[in-house]
Structure formats: structure tokens, C-alpha cells
């Protein structure tokens, strides 16, 4: 705490040269020093044990998973995700933004606004171009005193994490290593908002074609990694977790980015605390940030184009109002 004493003699922790005290002054000085030291200790302890306050929403923790390039009709290759649908609220025809490319769409997913507002108009890692211009859900959660972390498999997502906007950022290319790192962090830090982004599905789409056998195998690999995260969250029955699983875009042939349905339509699945299972409709990728914040009880800024999928303002979105929760999802067949 006061390691700065030696490098910064005027820091105030200790007088640089002791003077002969007047009667009573010595005690007062050292009491002041003790008070300051205790204050600094309290501050540093609070910082180390962030979050400083607990979430006020239905969920204490939100795990947001993005499967890069996952088309809704590829869920049939993902047994864990297919199984989860039966307990989830979901829209298998949710829409992403145009252009339907990774960095632009993730910026919209995490900020709740379109490219015209978040300013990310490129799709590669170009450090000189700086950061997203709109606050991300991670930054807003952190501002609210919660702990937020981003685990990604593409370095370009660093454009979405301006300094001070996340408590932690890690990049791992492969799904198993990414899941390992996210799980280790989850164990140790118990973040309130944990974003995990997997690249394999998109990568194999570009190399071998969307829905090709290699693409299907990548869905299996990512599904297994997601399954490990889901198992961990489910095992934490004393913590209220919500999980959102979605994608940045789909794909066709060996590419994506257009306005056609194969590129624009994405799965959007939510499970856990604060979520009523059933089918949804009209969900947009920009709703993701607002929903994550609302689940955590963090106020959703009025500038956001996206709105929370759950809660009073979202009732019109539910396709299953007044009906029994969907027990057997169509996509699992
Ligand atoms: Zn791609």
C-alpha cells in the first residue's frame, strides 16, 4: 500500500525527515499516519474484492456466450444446446446487424446500438483505430460496481474493451483452452458479467463451407466447451446465474456479411435466473446488451436501440404468452 514511500517521498505516508516534535504533536502525527494507512488499506482491500456491491436484478451473474458464425439450423449438431432449448427462452430467427460480420456485430451485441452509433465499421484488429465509441454492457456493469470479463478467441474483439471497461480480458484461439481459462477465472473471481466468444464454427465455415462436415464438427467441439460452462453454472445452485447464448452472424457458401437470411438470422437462447422458458420472436442482436444489464439490475441507458427481452417492457416479444412453456423445441428434431 505504502510501497510508494521510497519512490515518492512527498506522497504523504511518512515524513521524509523526522522533526523534533512539540509536546503532543508526535502522537497526533502518528495517529494521522495510522488513519491514512488504514484508509488506504481499506481502499485497496475493497478494490481487490470487487464487486463493491451485489447485483439488484433477478440474476447475480450473467454468462454471455457468442458462437461466431452459428446458424440457427446448425443447432441440430449441438446436443447440449439442443437440450438446453427445452428449458430456455429462445428465438431461432433472431436478427443481427448489417454488415453481418464479426467485429461490427459483436460491437452491436455488446453496446446495444447499431454501427452508426458504436463506430466500429471495420472487421480486423487495427489497434490504431481505437475503441468502440458506445459503452459496452461490460463497461456499464463495471461502472455499476460489478465485475466484468471478456474471453475471446479473436484478437480483434479487443476493440470492444477500452481500458478500464473490463476487469479481465483473455484471448485463446481454441475452444477447450478458452473454456479452461474462463472456468478458472469463474472459479476464482466469480464475475457478474462473463462474455465468452468461440471462433471455430466461423473458421471452418470459411475454410470448408457453412454446414459442411467440418463446420458441423466445429459445432460439436464448441458445444462441448459450452457444455462444460453450463455444467459449472448449474452446479452453483447457491448463486443466481443466467446464460445467454447467441451468435454474431450466420453464413452461406464460404462467406457472410450480406443481408440474406443465411447471414442475418442467428439463434438467441436464454436460460436461468429471471428467464421464463418459451419461444420468443423479434429478438435483435442489439437486445443482448440490454437484456444482460436488466438481468443484473443495471439500468439500461435510454440511448440503447436494443431493449431487454425480459421484463415489463418486453412482454410483446413473447410468442408463448398464455401458453405452456415449450417442452420440445423444433430445432432439436
Ligand atoms: Zn467470419
Key features of this structure:
333 residues; alpha/beta; Alkaline Phosphatase, subunit A; 11 helices; 8 strands; 14% strand; globular; disordered N terminus; disordered C terminus; binds zinc ion
Bound small molecules, by name, code or SMILES, are: zinc ion
Output the strand order for the largest sheet. 4-3-5-1-6-7-2-8
The pLDDT mean sits at: 85
Q: Note poorly predicted spans.
A: 1-23, 38-51, 319-333
Radius of gyration: 23 Å
**Main sheet overview:** 8 strands, mixed
* Broad CATH class: Alpha Beta
SS-based class: alpha/beta
Query: Which geometry do the CA atoms define?
Result: globular
Helix content: 25-40%
**Strand percent estimate:** 5-15%
Secondary-structure arrangement, i.e. CATH architecture: 3-Layer(aba) Sandwich
- How many individual domains? 1
Order of helices and strands: HHEHEHHHEEHEHHEHEEH
Task: Quote the distance from N terminus to C terminus.
Answer: 59 Å
CATH topology assignment: Alkaline Phosphatase, subunit A
Number of helices: 11
> So, the CATH homologous superfamily?
Alkaline Phosphatase, subunit A
Number of strands: 8
Plain-language structure description:
The chain has 333 residues and is an alpha/beta fold. The relative contact order is 0.20. It is globular. Helix 7 runs parallel beside helix 9. The N and C termini lie far apart (59 Å). Mean pLDDT is 85; it is low at 1-23, 38-51 and 319-333. Helix content is 35%, strand content 14%. It has helices at residues 4-7, 25-48, 79-85, 102-111, 115-118, 137-143, 175-189, 200-208, 213-235, 261-264, 287-296, and strands at 61-67, 89-95, 148-152, 168-171, 193-198, 241-246, 265-272, 278-279. The longest helix has 24 residues, at 25-48. The protein has a single domain, classed as Alkaline Phosphatase, subunit A. It has an eight-stranded mixed β-sheet with strand order 4-3-5-1-6-7-2-8, sandwiched between helices. Residues 69, 102, 202, 206, 256 line the site of zinc ion.
